[in-house]
Specification:
Length: 433
Amino acid sequence: MYHSFIFPGVYSDADGTYRGMDQEIRRSDAPDYTVFSLWDTHRALHPLLTILDPERNQEFIQALLRKDGEGGILPMWELAANYTGTMIGSHAISVLIDAYAKGQRDFDPRQALEAMIRAMEYDSSGRSYPSYLMPKAKLYEETLGFIPCDLEQYSVSQALEFAYNSWAIATLARDLGDTETAERFSGRSTRYRTYFDPEVGFMRGKNRDGSWTTPFHPRYSSHTSAPYVEGNAWQWSWYVPHDVEGLMALYGGKNTFAVKLDSLFTVSSEVLGENRSADITGLIGQYAHGNEPSHHIAYLYNWADQPWRTAEVVTQILDEFYTDRPDGLCGNEDCGQMSAWYVLNALGFYPVCPGDPRYSLGRPLFEEVRLAVGEGRTFTVKAENFAPENPYVQEALLNGEKLTTPFLPHSAIESGSTLVFRMGPEKTVFWEN
């Protein structure tokens, strides 16, 4: 919990002055913040804040929108009023859509939509953006329909994150009645299919002529020149959080999808390549908990009707990769993301797709947890028959009613409900299909 609440930090002085993204000294009655490690923290930290401190999360969003106004574009990874351009995608978008989808809207949604679109589309108008904020990957997507790996590094990873970001824009545009924008970005959100090679069963780089890049090995990693950022094909092929059903269809359905998932956790942990990324840590097979692209993967078993596998993997991660030793984290804390993952999983759920106001259910770590969720309301998680010999969820009940899906809506948390996990020894589908 402590690690989850260190960043972002206040950047304003006592009189409300701060340095803007245009490097001018500005003043605001609202606090300004810095250290937005958005590639990491959009996955679990900001969703955790929508539960535990939504007012502060709204302040973060307002700060991000101010930075957009001052510098002309949403930051990817802001540090001390600088566009560092670190990492890929545009996950201020993810933070905005997640809060909006949960009804936390202390900002102008149309201003937010305009900022989101501006962050995603290649701008050739001559604005003085640093080049890393307008990677050619965006231009290639618009002109070729895909990102060629022989022209742009990290092509597959960028494409997968762009697809998710596009889904987020389409979701907000649709809700605001902007049908044209919604349809345009909805089409972009399915482009992840372009990179799936059914012959090898992985997301794979494509050359400018449309041919698959060779040689190919799913355990190969290069930190500076590969189709994948800080990972390999094993770790990145699951990154379609907004359309798990579509990803599952590429693998041939639930059964073959589950078999492939099992392979991820049982294949050799050896990572190939002389310049392999040092960020690939905390390995179970090729699952890498020490880096963020893997953080949602354990929950994909719920889509394949195998929640016991989610429980098994999550338990292993909680037990092995979070300890009270000096080396108690298996990777970079990344400004609270690693710890926020732990907090949410200890509660028994996780946001696979920020922007979808549902949490995928796992298994709780405690017999009872109570969360103060505002205005005197309390959200309670209880585990009945809680014991080491009962590792699997047999039933999940929300306010006494058995759940019909493996998902918990954010509205249930916000309203102060009671979630009960009935634990037992049997591997079972605990929801009513």
